[in-house]
Design a protein that fits this description.
Length: 383
């Protein structure tokens, strides 16, 4: 690489120039039953698989925004209704003549479904991968499931509740996602060993040097292996892992307490090659083309609520009810029992006290005069 580009070449720019143009692969695009220019709604952005054509993606967490062809401002597209006609439909050309080396032992496309604010990294668990081969038409239905947490769980620690609220994460970025936290952990792991950042990862000010051909040996040793990821401090989980050298420890990558996940189901049908003049193939000779439909089949979104399971007064009521049902006593019975135990103990301690003997009082001695023994005459009054 240094022989052709010099010592100061940028591997990111080289890989972007080698990536096929989205305008050549994406032939026809429909969204919400309206035909749109594919270059207006798709952009070139970084993913775990390199540069890809991305729809509805805003990488605000790392400040590495996708490069739009014509669009100057970011715009999120929302589905107004359910059904295939209200979703996204794309006709694609695989450009089989341009194949030289493939990441997967197959031909066609790899479609990734992910959140607009998450970096598309399959290893983080928030990306759904779908393979689409030539001469196929695939229908991808989405189901959104949300999670929200009440403020009753805030007093508990992150370790106990197992999630983090957005306002509890202190960072220069605008939002926190579990996906981006895992990606940042991977970037830090590679940087600590190889002092560089892999080109397809988002830009980060702390990891500003891009890996080049000189770092291949280090990347094969510390990146291109199957890592066991420990997202947060867990002594039980860490001790159960056999190979500690193949384990990557993150700081505090907890899942979000408020989150939205998309679950995917797909069906497929075959396309016969030949000449077509339809809405999807207008005046086109179909050879290896394929069609992708992404839509929501049902209205509404399921939400899961995370709250405190049992409060102290509910637990007290349950215990009292069980004792009253099976034993026949209540909380008042426990109070009376404690009262009688205290009363019995107080009487028992009194019986062991030393009782002092009563000292009899001495009889008082008075002098006796002899005239007191003789009777006294009564006075008689005469009329």
């Amino acid at each position: 690489m240094s022989k052709f580009y010099g010592n100061n070449y940028d591997i990111t720019d080289i890989m972007e120039r080698l990536t096929p143009q989205c305008s050549s692969m994406l032939l026809n695009c429909y969204f919400r039953n309206q035909r749109m220019n594919c270059s207006d709604i798709f952009s070139v952005g970084k993913t775990k698989n390199g540069f890809c054509c991305i729809f509805n993606y805003i990488a605000e967490s790392f400040g590495d925004a996708p490069k739009f062809f014509k669009q100057e401002e970011f715009k999120l597209y929302y589905v107004g209704d359910i059904g295939i006609q209200n979703g996204l439909t794309v006709t694609m050309d695989p450009l089989l003549d341009d194949y030289f080396y493939t990441i997967l032992p197959t031909i066609g496309w790899k479609v990734m479904i992910f959140d607009p604010y998450d970096y598309p990294d399959s290893g983080s668990g928030s990306v759904s991968d779908i393979l689409l081969g030539p001469l196929t038409e695939k229908y991808v239905s989405l189901k959104a499931v949300g999670l929200y947490s009440t403020d009753n769980i805030r007093p508990y620690s992150m370790q106990k509740r197992g999630c983090i609220f957005p306002d509890e994460y202190v960072s220069d970025h605008t939002t926190y996602t579990y996906n981006d936290c895992i990606v940042a952990c991977k970037m830090e792991h590679v940087w600590n060993h190889c002092k560089c950042r892999v080109f397809f990862y988002p830009y980060h000010e702390d990891f500003n040097r891009t890996c080049n051909m000189e770092n291949i040996h280090c990347l094969l040793q510390y990146y291109d292996v199957a890592f066991n990821i420990v997202p947060y401090k867990d002594n039980n989980l860490s001790s159960s892992l056999d190979d500690q050298n193949a384990t990557m420890y993150c700081k505090n990558c907890y899942p979000e307490c408020d989150d939205m996940r998309y679950y995917v189901q797909s069906t497929i049908s075959n396309i016969e090659p030949g000449y077509f003049d339809t809405e999807l193939f207008p005046d086109m000779n179909v050879t290896n083309h394929s069609v992708l439909h992404v839509y929501f089949p049902n209205s509404g979104t399921e939400f899961l609520k995370q709250d405190v399971t049992t409060r102290w007064y509910e637990y007290l009521g349950e215990v009292g009810g069980l004792y009253g049902l099976y034993v026949g006593i209540s909380i008042i019975s426990f109070v009376e029992l404690i009262y009688f135990i205290i009363l019995w103990l107080s009487e028992a301690f009194k019986s062991f006290e030393v009782v002092e003997e009563e000292i009899p009082r001495e009889n008082a001695i008075h002098p006796i005069y002899w005239n007191e023994f003789f009777p006294h005459p009564r006075a008689v009054m005469n009329n």
